[in-house]
Amino acid sequence: MQIGGFIKQSFIDYPGKIASVVFVAGCNLRCPFCHNPSLVEISSHDILLDERLIFEYLQHHSLLLDGVVITGGEPLLQKDLPVWIEKMKSIGLSVKLDTNGTCFSALQELLLNRKVDFVAMDVKHVLSFEKYRQATGILTKKLFENILSSIRLIMEAGIAYEFRTTVVKGLHSQEDLLLMAHDLKYARRWIWQPYQAVNVLCPEKEFSSFSDAELEAILHAAGGISNVQIRK
Known about the structure:
Structural class: alpha/beta
Distance between the termini: 32 Å
Order of helices and strands: EEHEHEHEHHEHEEHE
CATH architecture: Alpha-Beta Barrel
Shape: globular
Largest sheet: 9 strands, mixed
CATH superfamily: Aldolase class I
Number of strands: 9
């Protein structure tokens, strides 16, 4: 595992659980609003963390933790991710996986074999190829097909999950959010995360944040979207 960051204890990254957070380096998308730009690309000059030391910490503190969150970057690009997850399970930790949904086959293998307990998938934009490409910087038709398949898979897998959208003024309109609400109308839980213009991949973009009041007004205009939660 190529690990670029580690939080020993978090109360907010795994709903209802105390968890450590492992940040995997490397991503196959280039979302301009990405708030982890240091994890997008891996170069020979990057300082990666020692996987062995992180596992030793988790093993030593496993009785004080409920689980571990594996995020990124895009964790499913890591070929040894299933082995790492098995190690987490062996010390009694629940596993939450954060993903962009582009690696459908790897996700399918984990879910069919019940390797993870919770999946959080970022849904970047309206589920049309051109809109989605605006939000991801680079996108192929194959990756987009994988994203659509991953959404269906997660909803049908019978595990805990949530979809998340970083809501960006200058990228998303009210109409876009209402179209996304239709795309995700059968989802159990959809999180709106207001854009934060701090340490983003493309700070030159003319993006800004919707206020809580603006987001609430959009929900009201839609007659209420029951599965949406605005993350403050």
